[in-house]
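Data availability (excerpt). The following record was deposited with the supplementary files.
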Amino acid sequence: MTLPATPGRPAFSPAALTLDNAAETDRIVAGLREQLRAMRKRGLVLGLSGGIDSSVCAALAARAVGAKNVFCLFMPENDSDPESLRLGRLVAESFGIEAIVEDIGPTLRAMGCYNRRDAFIRELVPDYGPGWASKIVIANSLAGDGYNISSLVVQDLEGRQTKLRMPPAVYLGIVAATNMKQRTRKQIEYYHADRLNFAVLGTPNRLEYDQGFFVKNGDGAADVKPIAHLYKSQVYALAAHLGIPEEIRLRPPTTDTYSLAQTQEEFYFSLPYDRMDLCLFGLNNGLPAEEVAAAAKLSAVEVERVFADIAAKRRATRYLHLGPQLVGPVAEVAG
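Predicted structure:
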């Protein structure tokens, strides 16, 4: 990785995130092999979403243990974009990986995921029902009001959209019901991992891992997380090196969780990933806001607001990184 600027060196720029992609691939592959040997597992299971992160992880897994020892899952549900399944299949075919469809929609319906979510939405929109769609969006962190306020967007049968402020109970209820999706997918992944004696591979990049953009015991659960140290921009660069199909590399990052199309920045990050990467890198490396601002095409004041937002999300999501907390130590089985 290129080091940030110091006196006598070029100013900070996106080039600071440049990797030696071949060397990084070799390092990750070697790390995965060593981790699997330590766990006495012979392969890897992961969910393929058709997004850049899971696609890169699938390619790395195939390099590490061979395609025959990688098992991928497509896990659509009622709100999934059909394009995600098509692109996921394209990745599996490109790398010769066995993959199957596990439709989790019926399971989620049986657990009341959709009914529970819709009941909370109807507290604000009594007419909400079949044929309607919805998503949650977050206020832009550049606004400078100091609060990450989430709003509900609903679309009626005529395609009209309305944006509403949510009381905390409604927000928490919608999120709690929606989190059933990630936790159900992880349950399916571990079923297949157990029957194959494989390990479960998690797919968060550094931006997601750092900022707590995952569900505890859902997509946050895994045995190995091979790209959690990589900024999203670096994941895209690695994707090109690994031969991930171009249409996946050109697809904007989405959550594919809500029934209305939703980008990651409108749901959580407030900025496109390339700018967020630069701000996160700058904060991590102690760079002044003015220097980051020039690289990210923001004002120094805006960068300071992003720095504050990053710190706030770290505080709010710290518990997601914690394992179960014990009252007293059990030294014999300490990790």
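Summary of structural features: Strands lie at 44-47, 70-74, 98-101, 133-138, 150-155, 161-165, 199-200.
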